[in-house]
């Protein structure tokens, strides 16, 4: 009896444990469970511990409520121009109502795939191959709209539809590659021709500008050369004029000095006669002189000169008395300071003109635009030639 009681106790404990296990359902986060009671839908639970009525309630299915990404195999689609292309589709969706996903459709994955293929064939069938390849965004929007409208009654929300790949036939792909290659070569040829044309235009413009600048440079060089020649001629003329004037002044001053020296020395006719007789042998030593004749009236001439400019003394002899020499004549007969006569220093104005000409000659061959304008303004409005004033050394001569 004790053995039977122990067995019954164990069986009772096992039954209680089994009932407890059947009464508790643990639903992880991100999943939802559809609960049925006696075969009818009761409720949907998610994320936590759920109590069930044993042997009455049961979990019909567990649904993943996270967003899912499903990639379908390539589908053969015929375009408007009767070309078959293989298109891969990637659909991103999420189950919002697990009960509709269980009771509304047998297999929602298959349903999404079939609706995607049907919609894709409908959309691509109205496009050419080129439009299909360049209208991915349009196809994606239309597929998403059609799938969202068709699967809303299944409790699904289509968040994104993407065309993963569009593979045309190999022959068409080869033809397209050849066409793209020809198009690229065409564009490259056009761009090369455009570049060559632009290069030729730029080269021609550069040569034109170079010729213009060269002509402008030659023009300004000729103008500056003529201006320099004119200034040189003016300066030479001024120098010659000054030299002649100074030479005339020097000769006049020399004559004045000689005259003053003669007056200041108080020469007598006897000295002049002696000097005359002393110079006669030197005159006779000339190569062309073979015979000299002294006039017999020479003594009479000296006598007449003495009577004219001399006075007769008490003894009856005519004696020459020099005239009175005033202070001005004595001052004239004195030696002058001649240190500044041999100065080799250049005139400041001439030195400035030479420095300006040297600066112009040392300028670069290709001047800047503002320098060309400055030269042009100087040529059009040249500065007046420097004038030189001749210093009059002796106010008496002037």
What do these coordinates show?
Its main location: membrane. It holds the Pfam family Band_7. Keywords: Membrane, Transmembrane, Transmembrane helix. With 398 residues, the protein is α+β, with helices and mostly antiparallel strands. It has helices at residues 2-23, 98-103, 108-124, 129-134, 136-151, 170-265, 269-284, 298-309, 327-333, 348-361, 369-380, and strands spanning 24-37, 40-51, 57-64, 68-78, 84-95, 156-167, 310-312, 318-320. The strands form three sheets. A three-stranded antiparallel sheet has the order 2-1-3. The protein has a three-stranded antiparallel sheet with strand order 4-5-6. Helix 3 packs across helix 5 (136-151) and helix 6 (170-265) crosses helix 9 (327-333). Mean pLDDT is 76; it is low at 382-398.
Note the main attributes of this structure.
single chain, 398 residues, alpha+beta, Tetrahydropterin Synthase, Chain A, 3-stranded antiparallel sheet, 11 helices, 8 strands, rod-shaped, disordered C terminus, membrane, Band 7 domain-containing protein, transmembrane, Band_7/stomatin-like_CS, Band_7/SPFH_dom_sf
The strand count comes to: 8
Calculate the mean pLDDT score and round it.
Answer: 76
The quaternary structure here is single chain
Q: Helix tally?
A: 11
- SSE order: HEEEEEHHHHEHHHEEHHH
Pfam family, one: Band_7
Family: Belongs to the band 7/mec-2 family.
Main location: membrane
Region (Disordered): 361-398
Outline:
By secondary structure, the chain is α+β, with helices and mostly antiparallel strands. The protein has helices at 2-23, 98-103, 108-124, 129-134, 136-151, 170-265, 269-284, 298-309, 327-333, 348-361, 369-380; strands at residues 24-37, 40-51, 57-64, 68-78, 84-95, 156-167, 310-312, 318-320.
